[in-house]
Amino acid sequence: MISASNISAMMRHLRSLPACLALIVSAIFFFPAGVHAKKKLGPPTVRWTAGAPGCTFVRGDDGRERWTMSDKDLDLSLIVDSLELSKSKHHTFYRVFAVYLSVNYKGPGNFDFPADLRMDFVRHHNLVEGFLDPAELQNRLQNDLDTEVFDTEREIKKHPEQKEQKTDRLRIYEKEGAEFMEFITTQYLEPATLNPGNPEAHGWVLFPTKNKWIGPWKDREDFILAVWMKDKVWQFPFSLPPSPEDLTLHKPHD
Fold first, then answer.
1. In sequence order, what are the beta bridge partners of 208?
2. How many CA atoms lie within 13 A of 46 on its CB side?
3. What does the H/E/C string look like for the chain?
4. CA distances to 32, 96, 124, 144, 183 from 141, in Å
5. What pLDDT, in 10s, does the model give residues 109-128?
6. What distance in Å separates the CA atoms of residue 211 and residue 201, rounded to the nearest whole number?
7. Which long-range contacts (CB under 8 A, 24 or more apart) does 72-75 make?
């Protein structure tokens, strides 16, 4: 049988619960988990700036723009076709945005270049896309070519009278596919270990542009290409089509 003294003690305990809960909530609010943990910071960023030391811009006679950024050990050059916006719409296979990057190493010893490039599509919610992996792109292309062959053969069986027309179209498709495959395997930018005996890495990089966030190109587009290294991130902001101010030639500082 519960005594009166026990009931009184239980009531005092229950009355103290709201105060205890308040203390617990306050502790959680004012002292969150990991309060002493420092936020992990990424590598520092250097950005191409017109007229800054080591930063140059040149427009070539071929219509390509070249942005170069240098420090004591590296020269990085970004090359973009001024007509890339329109060209990206009419690629035979995929809607991709192409840039060319050249890296020249001037330091001693070895330097690991990871070929890690990321593109910020500024006017499309600042969407950041990584580069298209060349191995995955080759597999995708080969699968699409095989599918096209299968579909064409099936259509010819259904419509034998269209055999010549469909065969000619398939032949063109396969030819363009082979050329694109060769481009990916021979001209794509790859990771490299650079040193005085092998100081350069260069090649094309493709970025996907067909998704719900990017949509149709605007009349003018702003981009930021980020080249990630182990010790820093190199950023190249640029716009297409280039404005008259962008076409000013900047000479490197002595």
1. 96
2. 17
3. CCCHHHHHHHHHHHHHHHHHHHHHHHHHHHCCCCCCCCCCCCCCEEECCCCCCCEEEEECCCCEEEEEEECCCEEEEEEEECCHHHHHHCCCCCCEEEEEEEEEECCCCCEEECCEEEEEECCCCCEEEECCCHHHHHHHHHHHHHHHHHHHHHHHHHCHHHHHHHHHHHHHHHHHHHHHHHHHHHHECCCEEEECCECEEEEEEEEECCCCCCCCCCCCEEEEEEEECCCCEEEEEEEECCCCCCCCCECCCC
4. 50, 13, 27, 5, 12
5. 999 999 999 999 999 999 99
6. 30
7. 72/106, 72/107, 73/105, 73/106, 73/107, 73/111, 74/103, 74/104, 74/105, 74/106, 74/107, 74/111, 75/102, 75/103, 75/104, 75/106
Rounded CA-CA distance 23/30 in Å is 10
Nearest to 203 by CA among 188, 184, 224, 215: 188
CA distance 70 to 106: 10
Question: What token pair was written down for 221?
Answer: 């587009």
Write out pLDDT tens, residues 169-206: 999 999 999 999 999 999 999 999 999 999 999 999 99
Beta bridge partners of 194: 111
- Determine the residue type at 251: K
